[in-house]
Amino acid sequence: MVYEEELIKDLFTSDDATAAGFLRSLVEKGECAHIEYKHGYTHDDGTGKENSYLKWNVLKALVGFSNKPGPVSPYAGVVLIGVHDKKGKIVGIDEDLRYAGKSEDKLELKIRNHIRDSFSDGGDNTPHEFRFVTANSEGQQVLAVSVGNSAEPLYLKPDKGPTKFLIRKGNQTNELDGRELGKYLAHNLNPRPQQQGPELDQDFKKLNDAIDADSDRMTSQDVEAALSPAVRGVSGLAQTMEAVAKDITVATEMLRTMPPEINIEAAVSVLKEHPQVVEREFSRSASGVPGWLRVVTTRVLGQFLIRLRKQLPRVKGTAARNKLQKLWVVSPWLSDLENTTKSPELSFDQLLKQVQDDRTTVYVVTRPPKSDSPHEQAVRRWEESKRANVVFLKDLHTKLYIAQLRGGAFALMGSANFTTPSLTRYQELGMLIDERGRDGTRIVKELKAEAARLYRKDGRQRFCQARL
User: Fold this and answer.
1) Helix (H) / strand (E) containing 446
2) What is the CB-side half-sphere exposure of residue 346 using CA atoms within 13 A?
3) Is the dihedral of CA 355, 358, 101, 448 positive or negative?
4) Order of strands across the sheet with 408-414?
5) Is residue 238's pLDDT more than 70?
6) What are the backbone angles phi and psi of residue 443, rounded to the nearest 5°?
7) Quick check: helix, strand or coil at residue 459?
8) Coil, strand or helix: which one is 218?
9) Given this model, what pLDDT does residue 241 score?
10) How confident is the model at residue 221 (pLDDT cuts 50, 70, 90)?
11) Cα distances (angstroms) measured from residue 329 to each of 13, 79, 401, 447, 463
12) Residue 190: pLDDT above 80?
């Protein structure tokens, strides 16, 4: 990872006390192959008014960073909104926040929706993160939006006209088309096709033939259609390599756990003569359940709270401190969680204190509570935290919990309500899902979208809004 990518990663993984320092380092670097400044997202500095067309300047830069050649990285580039793109001076995002009702969440959601609508993959396979940073003593904020790159090309879909393929070169984002686009994609997606099998080699030959035959009139859609079989071939190859890597990991773990008195060479010699033993041992070690998924049947809600306790810091103020950025609680019924000081879970009191200390944005979706019930008391406690947005849905049955931390997200879905009986009395079933790997990341993203949909569903009754 190059120096600028390290700085971007530090900005998105550091605590509030040090984030401003990393931001200043990025601003001092100036615009380059990894960094882009934008005065505003839709605020026009020239007219002093909102100009929705300006959003395309940010989206173009993100797509250009994503298509940059080189090793795959989750921090290929960053757009710093609130930094003057000609003077390199921090100007803040007060006007963009004003257009979004002075809400960081609404501004972030607006940009996420634009990414979903304008990226050819809907943003599903393009890792991107958001971070609001207080940049200086005047309290000016900068919104940093990072993006990763991948092996598959990303296209920008304007409101009108054909899709565009953009690439970052130096401190500029350029559009490629025709011969230049085709040659670029063929070269950067498959530098050594002859080593990847005859079928894949043939797909790339078809692509090159198509480029040579009619390159000057080829549009980005033509190249995308010609490239699709080769991209699928690369994806299949990647899945095969991932499976091999998993087998190697299992084998390494088996060898690591062997008692020291066992002669490894002798054991390998015996296993070669009895392959059925190897197959049996592999089936025991590699259950087939992906590493990002865990099925839980005991204290199901507790497993989510235990995970929170383990991933959040036990000692505040350390440089490596993790932080709970967002929390979604979707549960028909709520109550205080009665657990003892010896319980491994994060208690309700500790959770409320954590969201206050971390300035977490919380979204709670639940049924309308009855007066003076444990349900109503729990809702009131969320309200008193001043960090929770609470809405009521009369027919809610979904149980879903998602924690977004600096280092990633994880989710719990299943049968468990956010109540003491669910934790201590009832037999529940749930699945813990990590934001890891392509499938885990995709599923957690879909669960976040479902939680957001429920929070904004027609017919909801808003109870309270976070006082940020």
Assistant:
1) helix 437-455
2) 20
3) negative
4) 293-296, 430-434, 408-414, 400-405, 324-330, 361-366, 388-392, 461-464
5) no
6) -65, -45
7) coil
8) coil
9) 45
10) low
11) 24, 31, 5, 12, 15
12) no
Q: What is the pLDDT of residues 290-303, one digit of tens each?
A: 778 888 888 899 88
Tokens of 334: 């709520």
Average pLDDT (283-311) is 75
Closest CA to 145 of 112, 185, 113, 190: 112
CA-nearest of 446, 412, 445 to 295 is: 412
Q: What pTM was computed for the model?
A: 0.46
- The amino acid sitting at 26 is L
Instruction: List Cα–Cα distances, 218 to 118, 157, 232, in angstroms.
Output: 22, 17, 21
* Cβ neighbours around 446 below 10 Å, total: 12
Domains and CATH numbers, the chain: 3-176 (3.30.950.30), 180-254 (no CATH), 258-288 (no CATH), 293-464 (3.30.870.10)
Residue from 350, 305, 304, 354 nearest 326 by CA: 354
Residue 36 and residue 61 in contact, taking contact as beta carbons nearer than 8 Å = yes
On average, the pLDDT of the chain sits at: 77
Q: Could you give the 3-state DSSP secondary structure of residue 434?
A: strand
| Distance from C-alpha of 354 to C-alpha of 335, rounded to nearest angstrom | 18
Place of tokens 């890792």: 127
Quote the CA–CA distance of 171 and 146 in Å, as a whole number: 16
- 318 pLDDT higher than 60: no
Q: Distance between CA atoms of 362 and 330, rounded to whole angstroms?
A: 11
Tokens coding 30: 């100036």
pLDDT digits (tens, 9 = 90+) for 67-101: 887 777 788 899 999 998 777 889 999 999 999 99
Q: What is the pLDDT of residue 226?
A: 52
Three-state secondary structure call for residue 47: coil
| Interval 28-56 mean pLDDT | 90
Q: Can you tell me the distance from the alpha carbon of 336 to that of 236, in angstroms, rounded to the nearest whole number?
A: 48
